[in-house]
């Protein structure tokens, strides 16, 4: 079993947290559909809406963890298909390259990662009709099902972190990487209270994006340096 590269969880968390503007632009409509579909009495009371929002978002993160476990398992299989030391280095190198690309994306310097979003469109076309059947949301169970489906929406950030999950070479570590990513998205996508608004405003600032991008690039370079 390969050892997970240092900083990989923090990197995943930062991608989720500081990629918030991207998440809000892509998923704002889904958040709005959930909220507007609730009973007006629930929408007017944040305490009544809280269980729906929490269930929705926790189920979404559970979907990320499921995908992370699957991709981590794929990495474990790859380790068995070739000489262990060779494949270990390849996966570490892949993780480092993906971190660098993510940093360039977050900093606004290169959007190559956005190409990955188009690759997931085929899967989402099959899942989207299931999501429409769950609207309007009438109970937390529906919110949970919708949130779990939402985890599979085409998103360059999500898919890029999934590539990093492959590099862990472990079902558990792959799931934990995606849990860290999901935790980072919570402040922006929970959709209630001043915290989400403040996080969104901060993440819109160019210097914040660039600092985040440089941090993630640094993690990627460190991962590649470990190969030597």
UniProtKB/TrEMBL annotation:
Keywords: Membrane, Transmembrane, Transmembrane helix. It holds the Pfam family DsbD_2. Residues 11-222 form the Urease accessory protein UreH-like transmembrane domain. The lineage of its organism: Bacteria, Pseudomonadati, Pseudomonadota, Gammaproteobacteria, Chromatiales. This is Urease accessory protein UreH-like transmembrane domain-containing protein. It comes from the Bacteria. PANTHER family: HEAVY METAL TRANSPORTER, HEAVY METAL TRANSPORTER-RELATED. The chain crosses the membrane at residues 61-79, 91-110, 149-168, 175-200, 206-225.
